[in-house]
Amino acid sequence: MPWIIRSLLFIGVPLAAMNWYVGRRCVQAFSSRLGVPPSRVRAVLLPVAVFANLLPIAAIVAFSIGGRDALQAFSGENHLVDILLVYPFWTWLVVLVQLFLCIAVWDIGRSLIALALRGRRELWKVRTHTFVVYAAAIVAVYSVVRLVSDSTTVRVVRVDVRIPREFSGLDGVKIVHVSDVQGDGRTDEVKIAQFVELCNSLKPDIALNSGDQVTSGEKYIASTARLLGELKPVHGHFAAVGDHDIFSSKTKMLTAMRDNGIVVEDDTSILLSVRDVPVWLSMVTYTYPQKPDSVKLERIFNAPDSTFRILLIHQPAERVIDMTEKAGYHLALAGHTHGGGIAFGLPGIGVLSPASFESKYVSGVYHAGHMTVNVTNGLGFTLAPIRFQAPLDVTLLTLRAER
Questions:
Q1: pLDDT (tens digit, 9 = 90+) per residue, 202-241?
Q2: Which residues 6+ apart lie within 8 Å of 151 measured at CB?
Q3: What is the DSSP letter of 385?
Q4: Distance between CA 336 and CA 186 in Å, rounded?
Q5: Residue ranges with strand state E in 288-390
Q6: What's the CA gap between 65 and 60, in Å, rounded?
Q7: pTM: predicted TM-score of the whole model, two decimal places
Q8: What are the structural domains of the chain?
Q9: How far is CA 383 from the centre of its chain?
Q10: What are the residues whose beta carbons fall under 8 Å from the beta carbon of 378, sequence distance 6 or more?
């Protein structure tokens, strides 16, 4: 069974439970506050909910009739399918989960208060209906506005990285960190060209790319590599191999990238000279289909003395991060997580995404011992063609020598 079908079915089970719970609360609340029968509220909400949840059913039917080729329509190749099925499903999912969290927290608090104030249950029932009505309106507006903003606007994250005084020659060196460009029908040539133009405007000394240049298939390999080749830092553009680079065609991706002047290596370290300072750059292929063992990693991390050491990797695997920190590396750069892609939670309280269960390095800057770790959110999409509380970004790291 294709991964897109498995993923949608996996999401569908808890989503069905949330639809029932949130739908029931909304019917009760709107019926009470608007003074109309529950059946009238249900007659409005039910068709909307059914329409918004048609994507998994349509994908299964398409696969049953046309096989894997039919699923291409759900991967950005058909804009009508996106408008009618894909975007409504994911937008509904975001609003539903956020509203579920708000109502669940309220219900838990209300239950605790009801135990203490048994005589005021009716009052809290009315307040609950009022809360649900206002929460539904606020969550819907916030979620849609945030979703559109995070999915369409590329932010520049600027980070100063402290480095040992012995590498003071690198003071002020600017590294543009990109990842997960995911060239496809949604992240098209226009978007990638604008992204590259933005990166060039930062005037980087080095460009480091954490992989996943396309989403799937071979259709977008040549065009994506050509556009990425227009990123022109002073000391070169270097890339690691990502999961989707392997899923599409690793050999063709490597060839296309190299033909466009991008240095992309597979489990290899190279020695660079940046402002006459030796820099040991390790490009590690750590993906679902390919992971180096500890022996290979030790060989890759066997850096010469007195070198500034950088790890460039796709997945921010804690095992590899720990090994590089112990090997004396100064900087580790990864992507893969999309910043969580869709990160749920209550603003001001905290957010959580599926990527949080895979690695503690999800988005932004971390410190592993003396080593700085940066995980960039990247540009593109995979299963969900949206971002929520995990905006598109590119990171500009500026090295600052300790004084």
A1: 999 999 999 999 998 899 999 999 999 999 999 999 999 9
A2: 381, 385, 386, 387, 388, 392
A3: S
A4: 18
A5: 308-313, 331-334, 344-346, 350-352, 364-368, 371-375
A6: 9
A7: 0.92
A8: 3-151 (no CATH), 154-401 (3.60.21.10)
A9: 10
A10: 178, 179, 180, 181, 182, 210, 212, 335, 338, 339, 392, 393
Say which residue the tokens 């995979």 belong to: 382
| Contact status, residue 398 vs residue 158, Cβ threshold 8 Å | yes
| DSSP H helical ranges for 35-120 | 38-52, 54-66, 79-81, 87-116
Q: b/e string for 112-122 if b means 16 or more Cβ within 10 A?
A: eeeeeeeeeee
Which residue carries 């000279």 as its tokens?
Answer: 273
Residue-wise pLDDT tens digits, 289-320 = 999 999 999 999 999 999 999 999 999 999 99
**Structural tokens at position 101:** 């969290």
Tokens of 107: 């219900």
Query: What is the CB-side half-sphere exposure of residue 297 using CA atoms within 13 A?
Result: 22
